[in-house]
């Protein structure tokens, strides 16, 4: 025990000496940049991703739902509530409604208390009037109608409307609902009623075409737990759905946006590892003589290895928390800049971004910094009297192998996508080989030019050739950094263009609704006077 304590005390003294001498500055800065950059991007991406999912859930009126053409068992709802998940039910069907001698086929949605769990209903005080959000629902015995039903049925607010075997009073104008989708039962004008009024209508009978939904709202942990509880009891007739399954177009757009955000963080991880590798190589080179002296004083290779392992651990314990704090500050600055362009307040981040930042720091230390530092154990004590004795350093297989494994672990854990990680690593490898070959050619060509240049240029080019490997590595890293930034810029542009390209060039972008047939010719004449092209009329 006393020997271990003495070794640890020696390591701490050496660490303090390196700190005072400034030899740890570059490595600490590299770690701070690595952890700070990754945590800042991860925090920002996490908040933007949560905002995307949260806002997209408004199109579902819930975070998750179970959909079926059969009645959904109440036991599902009880299970959800025991896990702290909020629930609501909807029932959608088509039916004829009657007002005097007029009738109309409508899409009826019957809802329970709490609907909608996400998003808001919008109502207006009169048909085709200005609308506003509301938290209310029709009372039992009352209904809200789509504005176009009022002229079609010749009905006014406060009057009764026959729905099946009962008559319900019209008390509101429904202007919008968050989960109005493309289901065939949603195509007609909407009638919103309470679920408690459905039995009195007598419309729902065996064989009726009905669409049941059980809506859920909760955090991801609660919803994952609920999915696990229901996984064994969900029959083929009951579908567990998120926004991706409920609305494929929204799900595809959300997936592309998340991939773009993940790619930004993924590239930051690669650059962070490269920065730590450069700092570690420089630190190891500056300790060749120091290790040789320690060996002449009796230090064994295992002593050297233990000492530098403890040094890296202490360094990580210092740099990682500082890097996380730096990343949090940078992320707050980014959010402050973006906030004025955001129509909503971004939700708070989870714990994963901080874990990603901390793991990045330690994995970068052990995958990128450990090989060159551990190679110091093979320094010969003869270097004390023979400064020209060359140290071979770590093997290329160990250096690049550990870097590749560390990068793969970080990227797969960060993105959760092995496919995206492998494609990115293969792309970076191909570009690195290309840039490396170009850099070597430049140095080789520079040697020939240097032989014909003046003494100053000859000395400068000779210095570049002496440190050929280090200079090629630096050129690679700077080239990759510029390339990755350009990729992000290109992908951002491509993402927006892809969203826009989904619409035809002549797609209508302004609409006039609820034009009655007798006014159609006048509307066409008005549009023709203003030379508007691409005018289509639909019934």
Short description:
By secondary structure, the protein is of the alpha+beta class. It is 57% helix and 14% strand.
How does this model look, in words?
The chain has 539 residues and is of the alpha+beta class. The protein folds into 3 domains: 2-56 and 252-416, no CATH class; 64-246, no CATH class; 417-501, no CATH class. Helices cover 57% and strands 14% of the residues. It contains 16 helices and 11 strands. It has helices spanning 2-21, 25-57, 74-82, 149-153, 198-201, 220-231, 243-246, 248-285, 288-296, 301-339, 352-374, 396-415, 418-452, 455-466, 468-501, 520-529; strands at residues 64-68, 86-99, 102-111, 121-124, 131-134, 142-146, 160-163, 166-176, 190-194, 210-217, 239-241. The protein has a 6-stranded mixed beta barrel. Strand 7 (160-163) and strand 8 (166-176) form a beta hairpin. Helix 10 packs antiparallel against helix 11, helix 11 packs antiparallel against helix 12 and helix 12 (396-415) packs across helix 13 (418-452). The protein is elongated, with a radius of gyration of 34 Å. It starts with a helix and ends in a 10-residue tail after the last helix. The mean pLDDT is 77.
- Contiguous runs where pLDDT drops below 50 for at least 5 residues: none
Helicity range: 55-70%
H-E order: HHEHEEEEEHEEEHEHEHHHHHHHHHH
Mean pLDDT over all positions: 77
- Number of discrete domains: 3
Global geometry: elongated
Quaternary structure state of the chains depicted: single chain
Number of helices: 16
What can be said about the biggest beta sheet?
6 strands, mixed, barrel
């Amino acid at each position: 025990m006393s020997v271990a304590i003495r070794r640890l005390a020696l390591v701490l003294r050496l660490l303090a000496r390196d700190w005072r001498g400034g030899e740890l500055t570059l490595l600490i800065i590299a770690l701070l940049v690595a952890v700070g950059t990754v945590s800042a991007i991860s925090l920002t991406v996490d908040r933007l991703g949560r905002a995307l999912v949260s806002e997209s859930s408004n199109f579902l009126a819930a975070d998750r739902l179970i959909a079926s053409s059969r009645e959904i068992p109440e036991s599902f709802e009880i299970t959800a509530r025991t896990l702290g998940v909020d629930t609501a039910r909807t029932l959608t069907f088509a039916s004829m409604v009657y007002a005097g001698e007029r009738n109309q086929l409508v899409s009826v949605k019957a809802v329970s208390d709490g609907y909608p769990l996400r998003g808001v209903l919008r109502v207006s005080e009169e048909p085709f009037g200005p609308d506003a959000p509301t938290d209310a629902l029709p009372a039992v015995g009352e209904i809200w109608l789509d504005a176009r039903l009022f002229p079609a049925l010749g009905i006014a607010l406060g009057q009764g409307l026959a729905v099946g075997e009962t008559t319900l009073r019209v008390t509101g104008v429904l202007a919008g609902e968050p989960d109005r989708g493309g289901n065939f039962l949603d195509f007609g004008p909407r009638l919103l009623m309470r679920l408690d009024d459905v039995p009195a209508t007598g419309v729902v009978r065996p064989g009726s075409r009905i669409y049941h939904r059980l809506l859920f709202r909760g955090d991801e942990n609660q919803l994952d737990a609920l999915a696990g509880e229901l996984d064994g009891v969900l029959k083929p007739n009951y579908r567990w759905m998120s926004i991706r399954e409920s609305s494929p177009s929204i799900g595809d757009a959300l997936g592309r946006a998340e991939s773009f955000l993940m790619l930004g963080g993924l590239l930051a991880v690669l650059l962070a590892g490269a920065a730590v590798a450069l700092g570690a190589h420089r630190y190891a080179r500056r300790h060749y003589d120091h290790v040789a002296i320690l060996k002449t004083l009796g230090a064994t290779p295992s002593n050297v290895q233990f000492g530098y392992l403890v040094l890296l651990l202490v360094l990580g314990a210092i740099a990682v928390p500082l890097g996380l704090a730096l990343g949090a500050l940078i992320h707050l600055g980014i959010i402050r800049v973006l906030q004025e362009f955001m129509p909503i307040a971004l939700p708070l981040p989870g714990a994963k971004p901080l874990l990603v930042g901390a793991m990045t720091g330690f994995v970068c230390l052990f995958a990128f910094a450990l090989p060159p530092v551990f190679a110091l154990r093979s320094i010969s004590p003869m270097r004390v009297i023979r400064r020209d004795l060359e140290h071979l350093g770590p093997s290329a297989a160990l250096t690049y192998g550990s870097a590749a494994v560390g990068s793969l672990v970080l990227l797969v854990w960060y993105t959760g996508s092995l496919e995206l990680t492998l494609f990115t690593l293969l792309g970076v490898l191909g570009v690195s080989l290309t840039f490396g070959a170009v850099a070597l050619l430049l140095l080789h060509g520079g040697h020939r030019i240097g032989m014909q240049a003046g003494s100053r240029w000859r000395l400068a080019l000779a210095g570049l050739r002496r440190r050929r490997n280090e200079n090629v590595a630096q050129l690679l890293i700077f080239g990759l950094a510029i390339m990755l930034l350009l990729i992000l810029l290109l992908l951002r542009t491509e993402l927006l263009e892809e969203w826009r390209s989904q619409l035809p060039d002549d797609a209508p972008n302004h609409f006039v609704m609820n034009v009655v047939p007798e006014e159609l010719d006048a509307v066409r004449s008005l549009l023709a006077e203003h030379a508007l092209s691409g005018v289509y009329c639909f019934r």
